[in-house]
Amino acid sequence: MSSDGTSSPFAHIDDETLVKLAQEWRAYAQRGEKEAYGTAHALEVEVRRRSRQAAAIEETVPPAEPAAERPWWKFWQ
């Protein structure tokens, strides 16, 4: 079971490999291999889930505090 409480059969696969596998299986499916459609779909769902999860994590990180701006006439400080 993964850390977010959901179980994924692809949890052991890193993101880059997962994307490559999804592309390969989609190509098999497009060539007419009926058994490949389900696998391609499952891989693509996992890719989308991970990308949404990564985007949600980025949104929770607060932006860095901007540097205090000095008045234009104090440029030498």
Structure description:
This protein is mainly α and 77 residues long. It has a domain at 15-63. The protein contains two helices and no strands. It has helices at residues 15-30, 34-60. The chain starts with 14 loop residues before the first helix and ends in a 17-residue tail after the last helix. The relative contact order is 0.11.
Short description:
This protein has 77 residues and is mainly α.
Brief descriptors of the model:
single chain, mainly alpha, 77 residues
What sequence of helices (H) and strands (E) makes up the elements?
A: HH
Structural class of the secondary elements?
mainly alpha
How many strand segments? 0
Radius of gyration: 22 Å
Question: How are the elements arranged and paired?
Answer:
Elements: H1 15-30, H2 34-60
